[in-house]
Amino acid sequence: MDDPEERFTDLYDRHYRSVLGYALLRAERDVAEDVSSETFLVAWRRLAELPEPPLPWLLGVARNLLAKQRASRHRRQALVDRIAALTTARDQAGWDVAEHVVDREAALAALAALPERDVEALVFATWYGLPPEQAATVMGCSVRTYNVRLHRARKRLGQALRLGDGPRPRPRLLTTPLEDSHD
Known about the structure:
The protein is mostly helical. The chain has 9 helices and no strands. It has helices spanning 4-24, 29-45, 55-86, 89-93, 97-113, 116-126, 132-139, 143-162, 177-181. Helix 1 packs antiparallel against helix 2 (29-45). It is elongated and about 65 Å long. The N and C termini lie far apart (72 Å).
């Protein structure tokens, strides 16, 4: 069978039920269906590299995807648990939306004042949860350099948040002719 589409269709027809059955034994139906679909997406991308017989390989891919799902679920639950542990009854009873809007605005202003490299280092660590090795790869630097950048970014962010009068705005890339004439 030389046609990749035919080969994939045959693979899918022969093994989808087995992969789905495997995933259903380990996860809820919607997760199992997602994992099965993603397993065959990986198979499509690596169709030329599939071993014979392909079922053990497909089950291994499904197993790895299920492990990633579990790890992600545990990280989310750990975050929820940390937030719950830090939340007091006073926080829930006296929650003032206006206070949080001001805090949010201050945080956004502080982030906007940081150099883009600082924001990028912070985003990789906090938003994406990348370990330093992976974040350094994305930023194109060594792990040591990334760790220094992250440390400095956190320090600058803390300083910007402590300033009561607001952070410095980022320098503008484009200037108007009027602004140029004052220099």
